[in-house]
Amino acid sequence: MAMICKVDQLKNIDGFVGELRFELTKAEAADLCRLELAEGNLAFSGRAEHRNRVIHITGVIELILARPCDRCGEPVSIPLRCDFAEDFTNVPEKADEGAMSEEEEVHFFSGDEIDLLPYVEQAIYLALPMKTLCRPDCKGLCPQCGTNLNENECSCDQSPIDPRLAVLADLLNKG
Ligand SMILES: [Zn+2]
Ligand SMILES: [Zn+2]
Fold it and tell me: Rounded CA gap, 48 and 56, in Å?
């Protein structure tokens, strides 16, 4: 099941409010939007409200995302709960109005359905922490042999390189 909001009724009746509830399984999320869930489902619950030819969709997205650790690459579970708020209109002039002001963009739609998934996906990416670490003191991988230093020690020389030599090494690597 994708995240299709049916607006055939909603778009014609000012003041109409509809409840929205979507759930994507792990397989569906991977398939439809390349979000990898660690466990459970991706859940969206919210409402759609028609006010003066604009459909305001608000809600909450909950999921547990799986992301690789920035240092060692091991999967990390990241529980996320993010707010969702987007406006849609099928009146082209209204959509243009929105694009003019930087505050709130009003997305244009036509037909009887709005696919919320791309917007939900965007909201999730915006809510992601800047850094993903499996633990605060993750030691990462050995830059020389690739050993996961959280699990094993390796015999590579880990002493810091002289900064002047580091610049040289950098240049050589680029060349
Ligand atoms: Zn790590
Ligand atoms: Zn090593």
Answer: 6
Give me ligand 1 centre to Cα 131, in Å: 11
Query: pLDDT tens digit string along 12-22?
Result: 999 999 999 99
pLDDT interval class at 168 (50, 70, 90): low
Least confident of 19-28, 76-85, 88-97, 126-135: 88-97
Dist. CA 26 → ligand 1 center (Å): 23
Question: Domain range holding 146?
Answer: 139-175
- Shared domain check, 151 and 121: no
- The total of structural domains in the chain comes to 2
The upper half-sphere exposure of residue 125, i.e. CA atoms within 13 Å in the direction of its Cβ, equals 9
Ligand (nearest to CA of 140): 1
Whether residue 174 is found in the same domain as residue 91: no
